[in-house]
Design goal:
Blueprint: H1 9-31, H2 54-77, H3 81-92, H4 97-104, H5 109-133
Helix pairs in contact: 1-2, 1-5, 2-5, 3-4, 3-5
């Protein structure tokens, strides 16, 4: 049995892409960070009583999503320069592949695809300590699932 499992680059790449296209937009919206980060505010007006404390639940949920948002931003900052350009452009900035290639001064799809996969693997490595720093719960049903995939030793 090996001390370290071998990383499944393609599996990690697909999982990170899924995260940025499916899960991250929800985190961004619910954190209130769609333009510039803002804290939730209360208007001070009295409300009719309701069952439970929905204001408190709303603030807790906002806090959890904000922590996840900050963890993602922090993790991107831990990646290499080229990987940051790729993640910020392709996944966070919705730039086309051609625009990102131009920023990296890369010609050809093969070299670009290799760098995108590398960027996704770097992000998957950086998100774990970022989640610890910002106290983001981890798991399959949580905001930020485990993104690294490993090659099964029985395959």
């Amino acid at each position: 049995m090996a001390l370290f499992q071998e990383l499944d680059v393609d599996g990690t790449y697909h999982t990170v892409q899924w995260f940025f296209y499916d899960r991250y937009p929800v985190i961004k919206r619910r954190s209130g960070a769609w333009d510039d980060y803002s804290s939730p505010s209360l208007d001070g007006m009295p409300k009719a009583p309701s069952a439970g404390n929905t204001s408190e639940q709303s603030m807790i949920q906002h806090s959890e999503y904000a922590s996840a948002y900050y963890a993602v931003q922090y993790a991107v900052g831990g990646c290499s320069r080229d990987s940051q350009i790729i993640i910020k452009g392709k996944y966070l900035g919705n730039l086309s592949d051609a625009e990102v290639r131009e920023r990296l001064l890369i010609n050809g799809n093969g070299a670009f695809r290799r760098r995108v996969k590398k960027a996704c693997c770097e992000f998957a490595d950086c998100i774990d300590p970022a989640c610890e720093k910002f106290h983001v719960k981890r798991g399959n049903g949580d905001l930020i699932p485990k993104l690294r995939r490993y090659i099964s030793p029985h395959a």
